[in-house]
């Protein structure tokens, strides 16, 4: 019996207690506070209520404030006109289960049915399904995290026990005024018809909220929906890189300069380079290239290195590593003719078999003439993976909402070995020289035509002069 009790306690801890503790304490996979300058998010649970929700909407309209309503499906059923008004007045509608019941007390499938039933009512009333979810009492279970891919779980930064009538409007107002700060996500209730709440409690909330809105407006605060709060927060995360990260990037770039000096890397171009390279001996396994040549140990290759300063600039502006990779490939495409010309003039590179590099940015490289190979398993492959992953994490910004997409594209961002046969890179130079030759030939032809026309004119002039 004791063992059975311990197993039940163990499973309950894994299913509900630990996920709830982690999400509340660390904000894991939930949104609970914004990173903004002058915005506050008002959120209301348990409605709609036929009496208090319309009064609340009137109050918000008077102060031009937007809010987020997490509705209980059974309360919304039959009051769809209130949902229609919420949407028409620019508010956000979220899901708060079909009945106000803790997710700890329901199996995953039951929770899913609660969410979907409520979302069906929201869609029928507004024509759009909600992507925002607040579990009753903010209690999540381990399976709620699995649904975070399409639902944003919204908690709060401040709540005030406004569901109790005994708190009173004055005490409630004082509590709320202490949280008149940017980024706050306030939890309030527009309905008192749930377990543990007092039916008349929203009356106190409306009185306290009016004072809060008046004071907030005087101080220049904006009251926004949770969608805008999330968007502003994500933008702030991208734009305001931490001091630690900036310092780390500076150290990385200093190390790159030292590496260039130690290994005598040559810059491609005079300013804003895309590549550096060095001529070295290939030390890997033999590789057969498509055009018939073979690279074996001891062959000379031009080892390419991307400019990390340029990569950092691209990555900081890109929303995802994939976008950074696409931009980087375009830069490489533009720089290849310059590389080819420099290799053609470099006496050390006259007998190279291929251009060689290892990178995580390899999707689409085959279109430029590179051949893509897996790294042979071993210490070099393992250390390269670690190095490049650290580099990408340091140089790129990764919004949390994109993590699922990134995990699906993990294969696209694993290190690969790129080789371009010497004959292919030379064609980049040949095409450039050919263009110059064609331009010269066109100019020469134009000059000849001009001289010919002038000669004809002179001959005609001579004839006319003789006749005169």
Short descriptors:
six-stranded mixed β-sheet; TIM Barrel; single chain; 468 residues; 16 strands; alpha/beta
What does it look like?
With 468 residues, the protein is an alpha/beta fold. It folds into 2 domains: 2-238, Alpha-Beta Barrel (TIM Barrel); 241-428, no CATH class. Helix content is 50%, strand content 14%. The protein contains 14 helices and 16 strands. It has helices at residues 2-26, 52-62, 73-76, 80-88, 108-126, 169-177, 201-218, 226-239, 243-262, 308-317, 321-345, 379-395, 403-408, 422-467; strands at residues 39-45, 68-71, 92-95, 132-133, 152-153, 158-159, 185-189, 222-224, 266-267, 275-281, 287-288, 294-295, 300-306, 354-359, 371-373, 416-421. Strands 1, 2, 3, 6, 7 and 8 form a 6-stranded parallel beta sheet that branches. The chain has a 6-stranded mixed beta sheet with strand order 9-10-13-14-16-15. Helix 2 (52-62) links the parallel strand 1 and strand 2. Helix 4 (80-88) packs across helix 5, helix 6 packs parallel to helix 7 (201-218) and helix 10 runs antiparallel to helix 11 (321-345). The termini are far apart. Residues 38-224 form the NodB homology domain. Pfam families: Polysacc_deac_1, YkoP.
SS summary, helix count: 14
CATH topology of the largest domain: TIM Barrel
Number of domains: 2
What is the 3D form? elongated
Largest beta-sheet characterization: 6 strands, parallel
Assembly state: single chain
Summarize model confidence as the mean pLDDT: 81
Rounded to an integer in angstroms, the radius of gyration calculated over CA atoms is: 33 Å
Helix content: 40-55%
The count of DSSP E runs of length 2 or more, i.e. the number of strands, is 16
Which percent band covers the strand fraction? 5-15%
What is the CATH H-level superfamily of the largest domain?
Answer: Glycoside hydrolase/deacetylase
Distance between the termini: 133 Å
What is the CATH level 1 assignment of the largest domain?
A: Alpha Beta
Q: Residue ranges: pLDDT <50 for 5 or more in a row?
A: 5-20, 398-411, 457-468
User: Per CATH, which architecture of the largest domain?
Assistant: Alpha-Beta Barrel
């Amino acid at each position: 019996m004791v063992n059975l009790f311990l197993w039940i306690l163990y499973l309950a801890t894994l299913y509900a207690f630990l996920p709830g503790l982690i999400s509340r304490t660390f904000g894991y996979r939930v949104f609970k506070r914004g990173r903004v300058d002058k915005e506050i998010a008002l959120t209301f649970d348990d409605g709609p209520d036929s009496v208090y929700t319309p009064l609340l909407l009137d109050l918000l309209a008077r102060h031009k404030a937007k809010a987020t309503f997490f509705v209980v499906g059974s309360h919304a059923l039959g009051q769809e006109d209130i949902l229609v008004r919420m949407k028409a007045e620019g508010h956000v509608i979220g899901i708060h289960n079909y009945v106000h019941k803790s997710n700890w007390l329901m199996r995953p499938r039951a929770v899913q049915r609660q969410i979907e039933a409520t979302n069906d009512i929201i869609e029928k009333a507004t024509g759009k399904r909600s992507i925002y979810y607040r579990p009753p009492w903010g209690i999540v279970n381990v399976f709620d995290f699995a649904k975070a891919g399409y639902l944003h779980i919204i908690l709060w930064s401040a709540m005030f026990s406004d569901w109790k009538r005994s708190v009173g409007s004055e005490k409630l107002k004082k509590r709320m005024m202490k949280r008149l700060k940017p980024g706050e996500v306030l939890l309030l209730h527009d309905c008192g018809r749930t377990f543990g709440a007092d039916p008349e409690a929203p009356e106190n909330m409306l009185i306290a909220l009016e004072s809060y809105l008046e004071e907030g407006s005087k101080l220049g605060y904006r009251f926004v929906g949770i969608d805008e709060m999330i968007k502003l927060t994500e933008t702030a995360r991208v734009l305001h890189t931490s001091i630690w990260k900036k310092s780390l990037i500076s150290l990385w770039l200093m190390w790159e300069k030292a590496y260039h000096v130690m290994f005598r890397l040559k810059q491609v171009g005079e300013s804003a380079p895309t590549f550096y390279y060095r001529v070295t001996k290939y030390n890997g396994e033999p590789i057969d290239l498509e055009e018939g040549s073979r690279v074996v140990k001891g062959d000379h290759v031009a080892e390419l290195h991307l400019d990390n300063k340029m990569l950092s600039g691209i990555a900081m502006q890109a929303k995802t590593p994939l976008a950074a990779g696409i931009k980087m490939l375009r830069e490489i495409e533009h720089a290849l003719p310059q590389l080819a010309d420099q290799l053609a003039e470099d006496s050390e590179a006259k007998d190279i078999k291929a251009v060689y590099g290892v990178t995580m940015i390899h999707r689409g490289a085959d279109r430029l003439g590179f051949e893509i190979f897996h790294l042979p398993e071993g210490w070099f492959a393992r250390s390269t993976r670690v190095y490049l992953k650290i580099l990408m994490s340091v140089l790129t910004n990764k919004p949390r909402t994109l993590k699922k997409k990134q995990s699906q594209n993990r294969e696209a961002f694993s290190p690969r070995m790129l080789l371009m046969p010497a004959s292919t890179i030379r064609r980049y130079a040949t095409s450039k020289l050919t263009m110059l030759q064609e331009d010269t030939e066109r100019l020469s032809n134009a000059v000849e035509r001009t001289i010919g026309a002038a000669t004809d004119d002179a001959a005609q002039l001579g004839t006319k002069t003789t006749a005169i």
